[in-house]
Amino acid sequence: GLHAAPMAAERAVAFMDQVRAFQEQVDKLGRLQVDSAEYGCLKAIALFTPDACGLSDPAHVESLQEKAQVALTEYVRAQYPSQPQRFGRLLLRLPALRAVPASLISQLFFMRLVGKTPIETLIRDMLLSGSTFNWPYGSGQ
């Protein structure tokens, strides 16, 4: 997908720097050996951001984020009792991951699927269409 959109040399260098920084964050999560439950809690903590623009009930979103943090705390204590620092290490990964530009994620993972259409536009259109989306794959995939 990267070859579909040629870039100027300086833009390519900046892009590769962003990719390298993103890869470092992924590597750090890999070294922590994040399991699926931890990953799910981290996703919820990251997604339930009460500071997001346009929220009608930020207090409710904050409550959901706190519940995800409590769930992660309890899970880590039960599953990894010999790693008391694990919860903190997991949470410390979030700011760096949030700093990864959405445009980088779109270019790396969605460019071949949606072309130059911003992924936010695609998601918004899917939500506003009011109908179910039929993926081009079979139901077993």
From TrEMBL:
The UniProt entry, under Pfam families, shows: Hormone_recep
Record keywords: Nucleus, Receptor, Transcription, Transcription regulation
Q: Please name the InterPro entries in this protein's record.
A: NHR-like_dom_sf, Nucl_hrmn_rcpt_lig-bd, Nuclear_hormone_rcpt_NR2, Nuclear_hrmn_rcpt
Q: Which residues form the NR LBD domain?
A: 1-130
Under the heading Gene3D superfamilies, the entry gives: Retinoid X Receptor
SUPFAM superfamilies the record matches: Nuclear receptor ligand-binding domain
Q: Which residues form the signal peptide?
A: none
Q: Note the PANTHER family from the entry.
A: NUCLEAR HORMONE RECEPTOR
Descriptive protein name: Nuclear receptor subfamily 2, group F, member 6
This chain's source organism reads Neovison vison
Q: What is the lineage of its organism?
A: Eukaryota, Metazoa, Chordata, Craniata, Vertebrata
